[in-house]
Amino acid sequence: MEMTTTLLPLPLSAHHSRGRVMALKMSKEGYDACGESSSPVFNVGDDDGAVDCSSSSSSSIISNSSSDNTSLSKKILNLAIPALISLSIDPLMTIADTAFVGRYSSPNDPFPLAGLGSAASLLVFSFYVFNFLATSTAPLVASKRAAGDELGASLVGGQALSLAIVLGSSLSLILLVYRVPLLHVMGTTVTGPQADEYAEQFLVARALAAPAVLLCSASNGVMRGYLDTRTPTLILLGSNLVNLALDVILVANLGMGPRGAGIATTVAEWIAALCFLAVLSGKLPTASGGGDGKKSIVRRSDALDNQRDKDGGEVLLTVTPLLDLPAWEDVRPLVVASSAMFLRSIVLQVAMSSAAAMAARSTPTDGMSAVSLGASASVAAHQVALQLWLLCSFLCDALATASQALVADGKGRNDVDAVRVISQTIFKWGLALGLTLSACLWVGTASGFLIDFFTSDDVTRIELGKLLTIVILAQPLNSFVFAADGVLQGAGAFTYQAMSMALSVISAFAMFAVLEYSSFGREILNGSDSDTLVNVWYALITLQALRGITSLVKVVEKTGPINLLGKKAP
């Protein structure tokens, strides 16, 4: 099935030189068939790519009939399946690094994996606090396009790319200059000098990829807004294969350990970033182009015709970083949305990084005299469990990607019924996905495959076994949380999400304090000694539970943007 990017015709103006507009692809025959008075629209997910000649105001990528569940499910799949692949590829890079370092270290040597774990947790915090580049850009682009404002959508995309370059370069410099104190905050002083050295090696290599990571995030957000998830999938799949090949060479064959793993991932991420820029600037075709083999993104600049490309009968524009300073009115929606999502992301990553730091201070000895060995085993186990958690989370986020784009489209058209039906369908799919992930993890754990795959260190295996049950049971909750995230982001509820995240993190820290330090917590644990590593994960479950509760309150609110339980408008 060919998924064609849905785009509305662009009313060009004298200011077109400021626009960096992505992939407006309309055949000459499409215009001629519809005539001058209509607005031809390519419908996402149509098998024949038929042109709808209805007016743009009444056109929709979603059926307005709530009974058309099959059509809606197909549209969700058209977005979610490629997004599922592309979103899982980035955590798969870290999982590949984790597996290679864990398997190709010396037997009963947790230090390389512990060092990688501490550095990776810092990098996850550093990179993903800027996840707003995707999560705020996508619905803003989609909403503007749904309202027919293609120029506005292009400006948002260009602003996001420019912001990614500036923030990524600054982040890279900060990580390199302050790497030692930052790693000490993550607990490397407890895990020992060997783990500390491995952590620094990995961090230095990966810090150089910061601009690339943020460019990939922003580019992904732009393409989500244009409902193109296939192109990011192919780009990230290719970069993941590069990472895997380099892991084999640098880690397995050359024995470079965490440094080799960091180099492999950095090279792969820069390749992905350059490919994204090449596609958005028209140097490479998208995966969602037409069957004629022509590029669906071509750099046009001043050569753009008013309505048609004289050579190919197509109107084709691009999204590139903005070199000029935009007016505040143009950039304000992105700044407002990004600020709220930045606060939300940084609060979440503070919680995740604190979990890693506390794991480093968990010192199970199990008959071993060196505290650093016990701490390293805890960090190594936490790293493996966290990567499995994040992989499942990104899989759930595929549904969030679909709901984000489709809900934003419905909101842009003021179609409250479509928004509600989309949201209901997304939550049903989320429940099914969560149960499926739990079942898969249970099989992997019960068979011993997951533990054997990641580590041969005895103490790490014991610690990891404690955590996998928690990861398994949390998946249905995770799937709901991420589905709700996508729905609320599509509805533009950025500020509410930031506040609910802050409340959830405070509750998680409170739960950890109760379990770790209070007599009441010991009673909950049946009088057993406190297990810091397990308590960290109980706190993470508390975090997700509060996120789920606050999201549920918002999506069922009768006066809210979703009104999930409401009735169809007459």
TrEMBL record:
It is a multi-pass membrane protein. Its main location: membrane. It comes from the Eukaryota. The keyword Transmembrane applies. InterPro entries: DinF-like, MATE_fam. This is Protein DETOXIFICATION. The chain crosses the membrane at residues 76-93, 113-134, 155-178, 198-222, 234-255, 261-280, 427-455, 494-515. Signal peptide: none annotated. GO terms for cellular component: membrane. The keyword Transmembrane helix applies. It comes from Stephanodiscus triporus. It is found in: Membrane. Keywords: Membrane, Transmembrane, Transmembrane helix. Belongs to the multi antimicrobial extrusion (MATE) (TC 2.A.66.1) family.
